[in-house]
Design goal:
The chain is 44% helix and 16% strand. It contains seven helices and six strands; from the N terminus they run βααβαβαβααββα. Helix 1 packs across helix 2, helix 2 packs parallel to helix 3 and helix 3 runs parallel beside helix 4.
Length: 230
């Protein structure tokens, strides 16, 4: 069985580069190639939703040159793969806090989002300037404002209504969460949505993670007995 929604913490770009005596930026560059390969693999396998953790709210603390390089790589990816998203009917979305993103980068993001909003072969969510705790706080504030404004009764708030205030509103929760580089942490990623996701950790760095590795993760997923607390 193919998971409907796969989420990936793409970790290890810097260590991949350091192991080869290369600048960290080269690791991020190679990581972008892995993104493209995994998107194509998900299309081929019939995955409907793919959420990739690209840049956390904490990542803004990285050196300016590295942050600039990461966003330049994102720009290049959008420019180079613009036609692929249209050709393959892939919906592109960015989830996270947009206030800090440079206006010219945000303009490209929003253009691709608008142009692909009706596509349904695969939805690719890029978690950018993202933190799950902030996402949850934003949802709580939104619901509080609705209650105070008389648009909603507090007693009517349930999991479904809460989920509709998250960035992933309208999407199923991830079935499988993959983390590369061997780190055993969730790193403030989709804390609400991955409540019942199966976790798969590989020691491979993200730039080395390819279609065969994705297949291995799915094979392991299919060996699990998903009881959902029953």
């Amino acid at each position: 069985m193919i998971p409907k929604h796969i989420a990936i913490i793409m970790d290890g770009n810097g260590r991949w580069a350091e192991a080869r005596g290369l600048p960290k930026v080269m690791g991020h560059k190679q990581g972008v190639e892995s993104v493209k390969n995994i998107v194509k693999a998900c299309l081929k396998m019939g995955v409907k939703y793919l959420t990739l953790y690209a840049f956390s709210t904490e990542n803004w603390k990285r050196p300016d040159y590295e942050v600039k390089a990461l966003f330049q790589l994102l720009e290049n990816f959008i420019d180079r793969e613009f036609e692929m998203f249209h050709r393959e009917s892939i919906r592109f979305r960015v989830i996270g806090e947009r206030q800090k993103i440079q206006k010219h980068v945000l303009a490209k993001i929003e253009r691709l989002e608008k142009d692909t909003e009706r596509y349904a072969s695969l939805t690719v969510n890029i978690a950018l300037s993202y933190g799950a705790r902030q996402e949850i706080l934003n949802a709580v504030k939104s619901l509080a404002e609705e209650v105070m404004g008389g648009k909603l009764e507090a007693k009517d708030i349930d999991e479904k209504i809460f989920s509709e205030r998250l960035y992933t509103a309208g999407q199923p929760d991830p079935d499988l969460l993959i983390r590369t580089s061997g780190e055993m942490r969730i790193s403030n990623f989709l804390l609400w949505q991955i409540s019942y996701a199966e976790l798969y950790v590989t020691k491979k760095y993200w730039p080395d993670f390819g279609e065969e590795d994705l297949k291995e993760a799915i094979e392991e997923y299919n060996k699990r007995d998903r009881r959902f607390g029953r």
